């Protein structure tokens, strides 16, 4: 198991039911990482930028992984990706897009803006658990993560 087991996973998802399914998927997959959820792009932006109440990185460390929908209120997922790739402190954080949009133009736009993976949300809760298990195994255990700037020290 990785030495990153307790690093935060950030979920940016405006649909409360989808966010709950993802959380349940993480629980059923026995993922121990803390899960942080934002329901809009503006709050996720503030967290990643270390703005407002998120300025203290010891209390609000950068996540090891971001799972993000693209259709968000406020700043969209594509806008957040575009901003993120220009920021040295956060541009290396892997982003897995989780969306219902299968359009080639949207897939290409997400990758062009720095998405590391693009997954279409499964409709079946059992499939969500399996998807979450695979995300955890690959991104949090197998993947060699880059060093991030401003990561909180343990």
Biggest sheet, strands in spatial order?
Answer: 2-1-3-4-5
By CATH, the topology is Rossmann fold
- Overall 3D shape: globular
Secondary structure class reads alpha/beta
What is the CATH domain class?
A: Alpha Beta
Secondary-structure element sequence? EHEHEHEHEH
Total domains = 1
| Biggest sheet descriptor | 5 strands, parallel
Q: What's the CATH architecture?
A: 3-Layer(aba) Sandwich
What's the pLDDT, averaged over the residues? 89
Query: Over all CA atoms, what is the radius of gyration?
Result: 14 Å
Helix run count: 5
Tell me roughly what share of residues is in helical segments: 25-40%
Strand content: 5-15%
CATH superfamily: Response regulator
Distance between the termini: 18 Å
- List how many beta strands DSSP finds: 5
The parts where pLDDT drops under 50 for at least 5 residues are 1-5, 150-154
What does this structure look like?
The chain has a single domain, classed as Response regulator (Rossmann fold), CATH 3.40.50. The protein is built from five helices and five strands. It has helices spanning 16-28, 41-49, 77-84, 104-112, 125-142; strands at residues 9-12, 35-38, 65-68, 95-99, 117-120. The protein has a five-stranded parallel beta sheet with strand order 2-1-3-4-5. Helix 1 (16-28) crosses helix 5 and helix 2 (41-49) runs parallel beside helix 3. The longest helix is centred in the C-terminal third of the chain and has 18 residues, at 125-142. It is globular, with a radius of gyration of 14 Å. The two termini are 18 Å apart.
